[in-house]
UniProtKB/TrEMBL annotation:
<keyword id="KW-0653">Protein transport</keyword>
<keyword id="KW-0813">Transport</keyword>
<protein>
    <recommendedName>
        <fullName>AP-1 complex subunit gamma</fullName>
    </recommendedName>
</protein>
<dbReference type="InterPro" id="IPR008153">
    <property type="entry name" value="GAE_dom"/>
</dbReference>
<dbReference type="InterPro" id="IPR013041">
    <property type="entry name" value="Clathrin_app_Ig-like_sf"/>
</dbReference>
<dbReference type="InterPro" id="IPR050840">
    <property type="entry name" value="Adaptor_Complx_Large_Subunit"/>
</dbReference>
<dbReference type="InterPro" id="IPR017107">
    <property type="entry name" value="AP1_complex_gsu"/>
</dbReference>
<dbReference type="GO" id="GO:0016192">
    <property type="term" value="P:vesicle-mediated transport"/>
</dbReference>
<dbReference type="GO" id="GO:0006886">
    <property type="term" value="P:intracellular protein transport"/>
</dbReference>
<dbReference type="InterPro" id="IPR011989">
    <property type="entry name" value="ARM-like"/>
</dbReference>
<comment type="similarity">
    <text>Belongs to the adaptor complexes large subunit family.</text>
</comment>
<keyword id="KW-0968">Cytoplasmic vesicle</keyword>
<keyword id="KW-0472">Membrane</keyword>
<dbReference type="InterPro" id="IPR016024">
    <property type="entry name" value="ARM-type_fold"/>
</dbReference>
<dbReference type="InterPro" id="IPR008152">
    <property type="entry name" value="Clathrin_a/b/g-adaptin_app_Ig"/>
</dbReference>
<keyword id="KW-0333">Golgi apparatus</keyword>
<dbReference type="Pfam" id="PF01602">
    <property type="entry name" value="Adaptin_N"/>
</dbReference>
Length: 817
């Protein structure tokens, strides 16, 4: 059989291929020849064939059929064969293939070979692909070589020991005695690998970390010698002595000094020397300075040293290399919480990085800029960030807008500034803001009572300029619906009022309803705003006509609202002023045990994880927190009552579910909050039938509370369709000479009952018994148990708030049997 071609000739031949198919054909032909040679057990050219096979493997072609040939080469006595054999084993074998275990004995023999280069090959192979079984079997041989005086073998044995520890951590203690003299070696290669081994041991074992902390002075001495030593051509890189070893020592010092005062104290001086004496004109020096900064920030270093480290990062920001600038920004972002003032000194440089062309640098600069915002620099930083928001790529706008919202909410110097900033974001990046930005801004506007006229005027102007930003349009529609009367009357004091008529305002809102740019949610906002203006404007007939048109809309949500609003005009016109009055001051969120109150458009939605309990009717969030005080135990179900009107409202029960108000989250308005599976008495808020039937004349009334001039009497009714339901009406009277205002009645019952509070007739109890406040309570008692109730009364009397608790247990038997 003719001699196979040499590796060099194969490479030259493959490079002449013009197409991928031609190359593939050459490779297949050569692989066939190599297979034939392997079958004939040709020992003469096995080394050459495996070398060619490894080259094909590097090109991406399959070479697994050469694995056993690698083992035969390893077993050979010739060094050239062993070299190719071990290289093939490292490339073609790993611990997932059982065939690698066949070479364990060969590696053990070679570790004890008389030639250091053969020993080095075995150490490299074991350190590269040794499995946990091989590491257990050969760890003793590695430990012996770690103690040898041969520097060539010690450095390879140290790296092999690192692999053994990673595979079998329990063998770590075996190498502990051998590590004692490693740092006293003069050879830099042994020092480097020794530091790598010590680092691995310290990261994997707290006990080893404590043991090696005594080596800190020795490591400091080695690092100092490296800094102070003169020119050494063997180790010099761009004028710096062995930067690779310096970096490794700095990383080990960082691990040893973390959370340890003594070790940190011992390395403070050398870290300051490295930070001040390292040349920064070359990238090599910057690498050492970066590791020095990380070490300073990670150990318990002195405050002056930490400032020095941050100043180094500040200099990095002025470097022309983008990678160095990115590294500096990332490091400053990690340290800004602990060393805020030191980082603030480089604020202008950080802000300049927002103008960088590199998107990674811009993102890090944006994140760091938001981290630097505080009450002192909020105006200047927001000016820069808003300018960045105007000009940045779309991929940044969402995160930047969110950051501006959070910073403005936390550090706003005034409500007007806060509103102006949020509106600026909505006008420039409205399509990119988070879903919760609309309800948050509405809450802010609602709570800023003195800014209502200014805000509605600004939003109206913005709406005239641009209706493409949907969040802006939604907020504007909501505010015009709430405060349209202030817009028309021109009561703005903060800036020159604009002259606008009712018809012009309605024209704008009607334009939103028909605009192709308006999302379905936005149209819902606009329709609700027009409806609210029916109590603020005189153009009621025009509003009726607009509402009636959308009663046949193909958008189900819009159609439902229009039908409800039409019903409000016709059947419930007497309730319209109370229903459409201005929203009270909102609270963002509140929680009460398992119940979460989520603030929406003037409402709160309560959700209970335990569906067997009665769903809660909404109430102001600040009252929800008081229920815990009222309940006092786990055996009661809280009942949260509806928001109190500021004007008396007749037929309070009809207010429960008349309108599914517009959700501020941008989603369609939810269906009525009461599930169908619940008792049917919760669903009849709009029923034209009587609220209950008077079939309980025999149930005597009772006095539940009488104190400080306030008297609460209870009368009882029983419903015909469901005898398990008792309807209780409270009558609150006041015998004192002054009205009791802000009156709130709350109640709770045990879990075996279900209870619902309807809206009260008023929140003012007139003085001298000149009137009373009535409120209906429905109680479902399917088990016919004795009724028990805890009540909480809150009101204001003569300017002083009053709060009292009471327990009612003496209900007449006819009310619950």
């Amino acid at each position: 059989m003719p001699a196979p071609i040499r590796l060099r000739e194969l490479i030259r031949t493959i490079r002449t291929a013009r197409t991928q198919a031609e190359e593939r054909e050459m490779i297949q032909k050569e692989c066939a020849a190599i297979r034939s040679s392997f079958r004939e057990e040709d020992n003469t050219y096995r080394c050459r064939n495996v070398a060619k096979l490894l080259y094909m493997h590097m090109l991406g072609y399959p070479a697994h059929f050469g694995q056993l040939e690698c083992l035969k080469l390893i077993a050979s006595q010739k060094f050239t064969d062993k070299r190719i054999g071990y290289l093939g084993a490292m490339l073609l074998l790993d611990e997932r293939q059982d065939v690698h275990l066949l070479m364990t004995n060969c590696i053990k023999n070679d570790l004890n070979h008389s030639t250091q280069y053969v020993q080095g090959l075995a150490l490299c192979t074991l350190g590269c692909m040794g499995s946990s079984e091989m590491c257990r079997d050969l760890a003793g041989e590695v430990e012996k070589l770690l103690k040898t005086s041969n520097s060539y073998l010690r450095k390879k044995a140290a790296l092999c020991a690192v692999h053994v520890i990673r595979k079998v951590p329990e063998l770590m203690e075996m190498f502990l005695p051998a590590t004692k003299n490693l740092l006293s070696e003069k050879n830099h290669g042994v020092l480097h690998t020794s530091v790598v081994l010590l680092t691995e041991m310290c990261e994997r074992s707290p006990d080893m970390l404590l043991h090696f902390r005594k080596l800190v002075p020795q490591l400091v001495r080695i690092l100092k010698n490296l800094i102070m030593s003169g020119y050494s051509p063997e180790h010099d890189v761009s004028g710096i002595s062995d930067p690779f070893l310096q970096v490794r020592i700095l990383r080990l010092l960082r691990i040893l000094g973390r959370s340890d005062d003594d070790s940190s104290e011992a390395m403070n001086d050398i870290l300051a020397q490295v930070a001040t004496n390292t040349e920064t004109s070359k990238n090599v020096g910057n690498a050492i300075l970066y590791e020095t900064v990380l070490t300073i920030m990670d150990i318990k270093s002195e405050s002056g040293l930490r400032v020095l480290a941050i100043n180094i990062l500040g200099r990095f920001l002025l470097n022309n290399d983008k990678n160095i600038r990115y590294v500096a920004l990332t490091s400053l972002l990690k340290t800004v919480q602990t060393d805020h003032n030191a980082v603030q000194r480089h604020r202008s440089t950080i802000v300049d990085c927002l103008k960088d062309l590199d998107v990674s640098i811009k993102r890090r600069a944006m994140e760091l800029s938001f981290a630097l915002v505080n009450g002192n620099n909020i105006r200047g930083m927001m000016k820069e960030l808003l300018y960045f928001l105007d000009s940045c790529d779309p991929e940044f706008k969402a995160d930047c807008a969110s950051g501006v919202f959070l910073a403005a909410e936390k550090y706003a110097p005034s409500k007007r500034w806060h509103i102006d900033t949020i509106m600026r974001v909505l006008t420039t990046a409205g399509s990119y803001v988070r879903d919760d930005s609309v309800p948050n801004l509405i809450q802010l506007i609602t709570n800023s009572v003195e800014m209502h006229a200014y805000t509605v005027q600004r939003l109206y102007k913005a709406l005239l300029d641009d209706i493409s930003q949907q969040p802006l349009v939604q907020v504007s529609s909501w505010c015009i619906g709430e405060y349209g009367d202030l817009l028309v009357s021109g009561q703005c004091e903060e800036e020159e009022p604009i002259q606008v008529t009712e018809d012009e305002v309605l024209d704008v809102l009607e334009g939103l309803l028909v605009s192709n740019l308006s999302a379905p949610v936005t149209r819902g906002y606009s329709l609700t705003a027009i409806m609210k203006l029916s109590t603020r404007f005189s153009s009621v007939n025009r509003i009726k006509k607009v509402v009636s048109i959308y009663g046949s809309s193909i958008d189900v949500e819009l159609q439902q609202r229009a039908v409800e609003y039409n019903a409000l005009f016709k059947k419930y016109d007497h309730m319209r002023p109370a229903l459409l009055e201005r929203m009270p001051i909102m609270e963002k969120t509140a929680s009460n045990g398992p119940t979460e109150i989520v603030q929406t458009n003037g409402e709160t939605e309560a959700s209970m994880p335990d569906t067997k309990h009665l769903p809660l009717v909404t109430q102001p969030a600040n009252q929800a927190n008081d229920l815990l005080d009222l309940l006092g135990g786990n055996d009661v179900v809280p009942v949260i009552q509806t928001t109190l009107p500021t004007k008396p409202a007749s037929a309070g029960g009809e207010l429960l579910d008349l309108l599914g108000d517009l959700s501020l989250s941008g989603d369609p308005a939810p269906a009525p909050s009461v599930p169908i599976s619940q008792p049917p008495f919760l669903l009849d808020g709009l029923s034209s039938q009587p609220l209950f039937n008077d079939t309980s004349a025999a149930i005597p009334p009772m006095t539940a509370y009488s104190k400080n001039g306030l008297k609460i009497e209870l009368t009882f009714e029983r419903t015909n369709p469901n005898p398990n339901i008792a309807v209780i009406t409270i009558h609150a009277t006041n015998t004192t000479e002054a009205d009791m205002t802000e009156f709130v009645f709350q109640a709770a019952v045990p879990k075996t009952f279900q209870l619902q509070l309807l809206s009260p007739s008023s929140n003012i109890v007139p003085a001298l018994n000149q009137g009373s406040v009535t409120q209906v309570i429905r109680v479902l008692n399917p088990q016919k148990q004795q009724l028990r109730m805890r009540v909480k009364l809150t009101y204001t009397h003569k300017g002083s708030p009053v709060q009292d608790l009471a327990e009612v247990n003496n209900f007449p038997p006819q009310s619950w049997q």
